[in-house]
Amino acid sequence: MIPTQNWDVRKPAARSRRGVVASQNGKAAEIGAAALAEGGNAVDAVLAAAFGLAAVEPWNSGLGGIGFMVVQLPQMGHAECVDFGPVAPRRLDPKAFPLTGGVASELFTWPQVEGDRNMKGPLSFATPSAVAGYALAAERFGRLPWRRLVEPAAALAREGREVDWWLTVKTAYAASDLRRYEESRRVWLADGLPPCAPADGGGPRLVLGRLPETLARLAEQGAEDFYTGEIARSIAADVAAAGGVLSADDLAQCRARIVPALDIAYRGLGFAAAPGLTAGPSLETALGILSGRQFSGAPDALYFAAVVEALQRAYAERLAGFGDSEADGTTSTTHVTAADSEGGIAALTTTLLSSFGSRYVLPGTGILMNNGIMWFDPRPGRPNSIGPGKRALNNMCPLVVARDGRPWFGIGASGGRRILGAVMQVASFIVDFAMTPEEAAHHPRVDVSGGERVAVDARMPATIREALAAHSGAGIAEHAAWPALFACPNLVLRGPDGVNCGVSDVMSPNSAAVAEAEGGRSGG
């Protein structure tokens, strides 16, 4: 096979006896590492980085998003999960989503809704719970003041996001929808076209509407302002003016919660995942199948055949029980992982769902809103059907793995239904084959995301590719930045010598792992 993108891409790891942060954007990782250097722990680091991502990777996550965090600090006997997953507005009417008789074209193979209103625009908003989740995590597990977690993001937002080639690609992908909404068009398509990075570098900076002022106010007034104060009033007014149903009452009643992590036993280790309507239960199923197999010294054809079987069986169970029908497409999820000098690890996955979420920027706050209603099946009478106040099935899978009761490594990924397979394989590379984080992050994987389709990384050795070709639906796929045919994982690991190591997704152009002590940036 002759690749269309013919290069060998590598990402260096970051190492430190102090803390390490890995993120899909290096500037956000730097903010997280700075929080560690100022006395914060792993939770502070991922929260500071997450706020930073709202300014530098706004199409993936932000104040308008949702998510899950798994955390285990040294003083904790077991991991816990901060659940701020997707919840539908209480006035959402399933009858407002009539079907056209066609099939949706983005992410999910749901029946198509008139005007794609479950996917785009103001009726597609789930309650934005990211700020509530971050606030609860900071209160329960963090050390740094709230203001310290948010202010660096506000400074980044005031500076504006550099227009590079990756921003151009991401904006061009969503431009046909961004142009439908006035503020989205004003911010992202100022001259009617996506922002373009100059060929000679030194590109302009893009200020994301009123987001800098919103972040500054959030830093000063606290998370409650987002749900009951001036920010909340602005959100509710903008949504009402646009014809949406997300209300001031939805914001005021938004609650994150802390629940026990899903405890999965694998090879004598403790795998702590997000429970409930996430990919965690499917990970438990797949690992249970994989645990019955023994493997040789390196991933071979028999190993990947076992992975394919485990993931196909896990997805068959998932699709039958929950009705999740996600197909291939571009999601906007992001992941941050951090380890601190005391042995704590936090893994945070947060998302707007689609790339650019609903494509709708609220003019009063500059918040790009999620399109979480697309997680629901628009057909009535299904396990995951649209309904007021309901929680939606999703594919996030933050994971912390403990050895002898102490956190060993943390991992997570973006990539929709591709997340589960990536997290399982990278974790297995470390556990089953004693790979280093760099080796695990760079090793080719398969993607099994439901149904018969099996995507085999073109970088696999020929013997493995040929053996896997026998599977129905198997095909060779390039692992590239764009189009993204594989998930984008990052991870941190604490070695037996006390040195923390982090590595970011190999093919994400802006991703990086950053070490606290050296302040050294690792990645693109």
Describe this protein's structure.
With 524 residues, the protein is of the alpha+beta class. It has 15 helices and 22 strands. The protein has helices spanning 26-37, 42-56, 130-141, 146-159, 165-178, 182-188, 211-221, 224-228, 230-242, 248-252, 280-290, 301-322, 418-433, 437-442, 462-468, and strands at 14-16, 20-23, 66-72, 80-84, 99-103, 111-113, 161-162, 205-206, 257-260, 262-266, 269-273, 334-339, 345-351, 399-403, 406-414, 446-448, 454-457, 474-477, 488-494, 500-503, 512-515, 521-523. The strands form five sheets. It has an eight-stranded antiparallel β-sheet, covered by helices on one side. A seven-stranded antiparallel β-sheet has the order 1-20-19-15-14-11-10. Strand 21 and strand 22 form a beta hairpin. Helix 2 packs parallel to helix 4 (146-159). It is globular.
How are the SSEs placed, and which strands pair?
Blueprint: E1 14-16, E2 20-23, H1 26-37, H2 42-56, E3 66-72, E4 80-84, E5 99-103, E6 111-113, H3 130-141, H4 146-159, E7 161-162, H5 165-178, H6 182-188, E8 205-206, H7 211-221, H8 224-228, H9 230-242, H10 248-252, E9 257-260, E10 262-266, E11 269-273, H11 280-290, H12 301-322, E12 334-339, E13 345-351, E14 399-403, E15 406-414, H13 418-433, H14 437-442, E16 446-448, E17 454-457, H15 462-468, E18 474-477, E19 488-494, E20 500-503, E21 512-515, E22 521-523
Parallel strand pairs: 17-18
Antiparallel strand pairs: 1-20, 2-12, 2-21, 3-4, 3-13, 4-9, 5-6, 7-8, 10-11, 11-14, 12-13, 14-15, 15-19, 16-17, 19-20, 21-22
